[in-house]
Amino acid sequence: MRLKDKVSIITGSASGIGFAAARKFAAEGAHVMVCDLNCDLVDAAVEQIRTAGGSAQGYVMNVTDRASIDAMVADVKARYGRIDVLVNNAGITQDARLVKMTEAQFDTVVNVNLKGVFNCAQAVAETMLAQGSGAIVNTSSISGLYGNFGQTNYAATKAAILGLTQTWARELGPKGVRVNTVAPGSIATPILDTVPNNVLEGIKQACWLRRVGQPEEIANVYAFLASDEASYVNGATIEVSGGVSI
To answer: What is the pLDDT of residues 42-54, one digit of tens each?
Structure first.
């Protein structure tokens, strides 16, 4: 198993891509920390992973609340004595065109998608540096690479993730901690349930595979970057979009 006994924190992992990642990591032998806002969803995710034979602990945590992050990290260290992987998966959208976007919409998305990534990475960095090993996987988006109509706030945060990743790869890499980014395209999560059929069809046609991606297809790349198979991958951004940028 590629992630055997790796102590792995995954934010936003009670549903969607994060839950697919939690299941994948557990199946690969990791001790998975399911971190999310909703207590019931966290409990359900942990139960499903354990029922399948995996190792999981649940934490109700808000990536904008440093106290809740620090409490989670302290408990993980007390339980396992180390932290091997952080997947910064948690993220939100609050879309609007520039002329319609409110300051609250902009600030909320920045706080979760950008400040939340900073909060979690800073909270685990000292432990990883002391170990001399670790892997941080950040989540950007094709919106961060190319922009997207109506996503000033979201695209800005996801573009900023690229800069964070390359900076941290320089700072932490010499100490054995790798930092990389995954940039998903359109993925079949509940967010797409609200997209009109004609718009969804256009999304599919923009992809050279003529479909949206599945959460498991992002989880697979997370798992690769977290594993020793990616031991020489640092500061990279892997686009997982079906080729929309071609």
So the answer is: 999 999 999 999 9
92 in a structural domain: yes
Give domain status of residue 207, yes or no.
no
What is the CATH classification number for the domain harbouring 30? 3.40.50.720
Q: Is residue 131 part of a domain?
A: yes
Q: Contact 182/221 with Cβ under 8 angstroms?
A: yes
Q: For residue 192, tell me if it sits in a domain.
A: no
Q: Provide the annotated active-site residues.
A: 154
Give 75-111 pLDDT, tens digit per residue. 999 999 999 999 999 999 999 999 999 999 999 999 9
Q: In what order do the strands lie in the sheet with 31-36?
A: 55-60, 31-36, 7-11, 85-88, 134-139, 177-184, 237-240
What are 94-99's contacts with CB under 8 Å, separation 24+? 94/153, 94/154, 95/150, 95/151, 95/154, 96/150, 96/152, 97/149, 97/150, 97/152, 98/152
Q: Is the pTM of this model over 0.90?
A: yes
Q: How many domains does the chain have?
A: 1
Q: What is the domain extent for residue 27?
A: 7-187+215-240
